[in-house]
Amino acid sequence: MDRALTRLERVLELERQQGYQNKAVVGGIRQFAVYWVTQATEEATDEADLALAEQVSEVLMEYGRLSGVEARAQAIGSLLAGIERRRARRPQAPPAARPASPPAKPSAPQTKPTPPPAKQTPARQPAPPARQEAPARPASPPPPPPAKAPAPVMEAAPPDMVEAAEEEIVELPDLALEPDLPAVEPDPRGLTQPLTALKGVGQKIAEKLHRLGPTTIAELLYLFPRRYDDYILMKPISKLQYGEQVTVIGTIWQTRTRRTRTNQAVIECIVNDGTGTVQATWFNQPWLAEQLPAGMQIVLSGKVEAFLGRLVFNSPDWEPLELEPLRTRRIVPIYPLTEGLTASKMREVMQRAVRDWSPRVPDPLPTAIRQRQRLYTLPQAISQTHFPDSQQTLHHARRRLVFDELFLLQLGMQGFRRHWQTQPGYPLTIDESALAAFQASLPFSLTGAQLRVIGEIAADLQRETPMNRLLQGDVGSGKTAVAAAAMLLAAKSGAQTALMAPTEILAEQHYQGLRRLLEPLEISVCLLTGSTPAAEKARIYEGLADGSIQVAIGTHALIQEGVRFRSLVLSVIDEQHRFGVDQRQALRDKGVTSASGEVITPHVLVMSATPIPRTLALSLYGDLDLSVLDEMPPGRQEIKTRWLQSSQRERAYSFVRRQVAAGRQAYIIYPLVEESDKIEAKAAVEEYARLQQEVFPELRVGLIHGRLKADEKEAAMRAFYQGETHILVATSVIEVGVDVPNSTVMVIEGANRFGLAQLHQFRGRVGRGQHQSYCILIADNETAVAEERLSALEQTNDGFVLAEKDLEIRGPGEFFGRRQSGIPEIHMASLLDMEMLTLARAEAEALFQEDPELEKPEHHWLAQRVKNFWAQASDVS
Ligand code: ADP
Ligand code: MG
User: Fold this and answer.
1) Smaller CB count within 10 Å for the chain: N or C?
2) Cα of 481 to ligand 1 centre, how many Å?
3) Alpha carbon distance 68, 66 (integer Å)
């Protein structure tokens, strides 16, 4: 084992010299361990050697996870000491080459020690048996027999791999990770071919792949693995521990079918890997008995559970062991599958697509940026994401893809930003005395946050460039007064303002609220919605055209063709997340104001009641300036929040009954099932019937859900608003902020299924009047996580705190819900990756400085990519 030890020693010394950064070997020390242990056990001549090899490999496998120089130094020190001890034990061994000296390769012909008998192959990596033909796979064309050279298959690591590792150690001591790919010309057109253009993909397979999304080769390349099986992390069965999630490989010794008392099939498999046996059990899948014959090599992945004191797998993921991917790739991609598409077929197709096409993907990222940020090329990133050489190359591949998404996002945002900033705006003259009069007319004094934000807006309004500002404030933080101040400033300089809300009833509420604030100051306000009577509409059109109406409040009706403003200088958009990017644009385009024949872009203020954590706001609304109302008006009542178990539901009902008896109203919310409006609506309809007939027969119950037509929704909301119904049963639609001051109870069923931010949003629907209000959360599943979340709601009423927490718990995708419009779907990017976001933002800014329109030839692909990326966004709305 001297050769192996010498090599090990060299690596350890190098690692020590480099300050224990786990960089002495390409791919990390762990990667080295896998090759090393194979060589070492081959060279081992006695039990002591084998034990040493085992011990070394254990330490090396864990090395990367040791945090801190000290722990790593200690690990390496102990290994070096172990090597010394062995030398002392066997003084006859040839002297080891010192680390600095050149590799002792050419001279001494190595006398290979007698190969150990087969039984001694280390348990860690059971030697695969002679290659078996995978059972019945008629579809795949049989490869020519000579291609399957049988000999190397028997070895755990082919000699060329060992060789390569050796070279890397000597020649590439530092991080030089770029995987090789053939240099070919990009072929963007070829990439748009349908899947059938791939060899081995016929119409049938193509259709199955369509079901997973991709229709072209390029799209297929972006269908990434769900996860990976890392055979490096595989465990011998003898080392399994209760509760862990692992992968094991073994041979099926026996497969039995049992029947339960209810006559369901239970398949039990005994699997052995040479170190021990474990039982795997599947329920209700009788056909498995045939698919899992004794003698078959199998890969099991799952959680280790206990049954009658023994360790077992219950319904683990399984696959027949395929020697090919296992031997050449230790990290095997696991793809999403669909009926009739097996994992092995999928991998085969992917392997071909990646091999033939990933080198032809044009890389849109300018080389300078790529090198500065030490990123893989796009072809490298794609191929390593599918078939990683190591965990480290996988990490780098993901890093590149994350960067791409954030970079494209930022380029798009900055493009929008630039676009509006180059438009001619309409600088207003701020009338300080009007502002003072407005403040004096209010029945309350503005909060510090309101004053600050009004100041920010006033500063924007005086500029030549149009304002583009997002105003965020929790429900009840007083956004309306801020908007009113902005409208007042516009009106006092002789211009017009429009406020667009997503529903009629919301528009109406804004109308009433703003009229109260603005009419005393002699500003004329109108309401324009789809149901405004024709005569009234005509009058309004006229007033807007001649400028006699200064403030228009309404719905989409405001952006209809016929609407003309004499001098629209400010557009306010409420509940931003209900409108797409292009609707925002439409209202902006209404700035048809022509003072001297010139088209002017109005200032835009977007108001959102969804508190968005700062990181996300930067990623997603990078095109807007941000103002936050982070202070609540004084004397706001605390909404009392409690969570109940489902067995305590009756208590919630009697509480509702008491509140209604006292003249109040209540909401009862049912969980959102985003995949299906239909199921959600059905559940709500059924619950509504039950509540009305069985629980509250003496009360009037209303119903509102997403499948209702807009006017039906309005009607249901209005009936509740006007007190005609006592209880409103609703799905998530009521999220949009209609004020019903008389409602004091919010009951939320299945509360564990909603995100914190959304629950908080629902809760904000009560506590709008002078009565003490309550929120009752009913969980249908009492897990620790649910408990933690629901308790957070009991403890705070601060939307921003809850939003941060929600984001932390669920991640950005879930945080927004899949239907968030106006933002391209982010596949992989962690929007929370502050570090990458900062890099991407800085690079996007720099690029814009250099080539604002992305016109240079070297930015051609980039411009294309940005366009496609954002095209998805406008599709949504
Ligand atoms: P939101 O931000 O949810 O739109 P609103 O603007 O509707 O909040 O304000 C909620 C309530 O708080 C309204 O009744 C409003 O009159 C009141 N309000 C707003 N600002 C203040 C303040 N500074 N002091 C006291 N009450 C305020
Ligand atoms: Mg509001």
Assistant:
1) C
2) 7
3) 6
550 Cβ contact list (under 8 Å, min separation 6): 487, 490, 491, 495, 496, 497, 523, 524, 525
Q: Name the token pair of 728.
A: 């409103």
Residue nearest to atom 10 of ligand 1 (CA): 476
How much is the pLDDT for 353?
94
Q: How many CB atoms lie within 10 A of CB 622?
A: 19
For position 268, what pLDDT does the model report? 93
Q: Which of 451, 454, 477, 630 to mutate to test the pocket of ligand 1 (most atoms within 8 A of CB)?
A: 477
| Burial of 306 per CB tally in 10 Å (0-12, 13-18, 19+) | exposed
| Residue 729 CB neighbour total at 10 angstroms | 26
- Model pLDDT, residue 156: 33
Q: Residue written as tokens 């300080």?
A: 432
Residues 6+ apart with CB under 8 A from 203: 196
| Minimum-distance ligand 1 atom for the alpha carbon of 477 | 2
Counting atoms of ligand 1 from 1, which one is nearest the CA of 445? 23
Q: Which residue, by CA, sits nearest to atom 25 of ligand 1?
A: 633
**Which helix (H) or strand (E) segment is 254 a member of?**
strand 245-259
Q: Is the separation of the CB atoms in 385 and 353 below 8 Å?
A: no
Structural tokens at position 205: 């397979």
Residues of the chain scoring pLDDT < 70: 24-28, 31, 34-35, 38-39, 41-42, 91-179, 230-233, 322-330, 575-599, 615, 618-620, 671-681, 732-737, 782-785, 810-832, 871-877
Residue whose Cα lies nearest atom 24 of ligand 1: it is 633
Distance 805 CA to ligand 1 centre (A): 25
Q: What's the CA-to-centroid distance between 722 and ligand 1, angstroms?
A: 21
CB 221 within 8 A of CB 361: yes
Instruction: Report the b/e string of 44-53 with b at 16+ CB within 10 A.
Output: beeeebbebb
State the closest ligand 1 atom to the C-alpha of 739, by its place in the atom list counted from 1: 7
Per the DSSP assignment, residues forming a β-bridge with 779 are 645
User: Which residues are registered as beta bridge partners of 640?
Assistant: 774
- Closest by CA to 1, choosing from 117, 106, 116, is 116
> How many CB atoms are located within 10 Å of the residue 389 CB?
20
Ligand 1 atom at minimum distance from 475 CA: 3
Ligand number, closest to the Cα atom of 482: 1
SS3 538: helix
Assigned token pair, 510 = 């804004």
User: What's the confidence (pLDDT) of residue 635?
Assistant: 76
Mutation to probe ligand 1, out of 441, 480, 506, 606 (largest number of atoms < 8 A from CB): 480
**Phi, psi values for residue 599, rounded to 5°:** -85, 130
Q: Could you say which ligand is closest to the alpha carbon of residue 475?
A: 1
Q: What is the pLDDT of residue 163?
A: 33
Fill in the amino acid letter for 312.
Answer: V
Q: Give the residue whose CA is nearest to atom 20 of ligand 1.
A: 478
Q: Which residues pair with 669 in a beta bridge?
A: 730, 748
Question: Which residues form ligand 1's pocket by a CB distance below 6 Å?
Answer: 444, 446-447, 450, 473, 475-481, 609, 633
SS percent in the chain: helix, strand, coil, step 5: 45, 15, 40
Q: Which residues have a Cβ under 8 Å from the Cβ of 92 and sit 6 or more positions away?
A: none
Atom of ligand 1 nearest to the CA of 482: 6
661 CA distance to ligand 1 centroid (A)?
28
**3 state DSSP class of 121:** coil
User: Positive or negative, the Cα torsion across 431, 437, 440, 443?
Assistant: negative
| Closest ligand to the CA of 471 | 1
Q: What confidence score (pLDDT) does residue 827 get?
A: 52
User: In terms of Cα–Cα distance, which of 364, 403, 409, 376 is closest to 860?
Assistant: 364
Q: Which helix (H) or strand (E) holds 766?
A: none
Q: 822 C-alpha to center of ligand 2: Å?
A: 22
Look at strands 277-283 and 525-528 and give their pairing: unpaired
